[in-house]
Amino acid sequence: MAEISLYNQRFKLKHGFCFLNESMKKAALFIFLFISLQTFSQTVSGYWYGTANVKSSSSTNNYLVELVIRQNKTQVQGLINYYFKRSFRSIKVNGNFDSRTRQLTLLNIPLTYHGSLEDMEVDCIMDFAATLRVAKAGSNLVGTFMGKPGYKYSCVDVNFNLKLDADISKEDSILRAIKLYKETYQVWKPNFEDTLVAVNIIPRKVENYVIDAEYKQRENILSKEILVDSDSLNVDFYDNGEVDGDSISIFYNDKLISFNRLLSTKAVHFRVGLDTTREINEISMFADNLGTIPPNTALMVVTDGKKRYEISMNSDLKQNATLRIRRKNH
Question: Taking the model in full, what pTM does it have?
Answer without folding.
Answer: 0.47
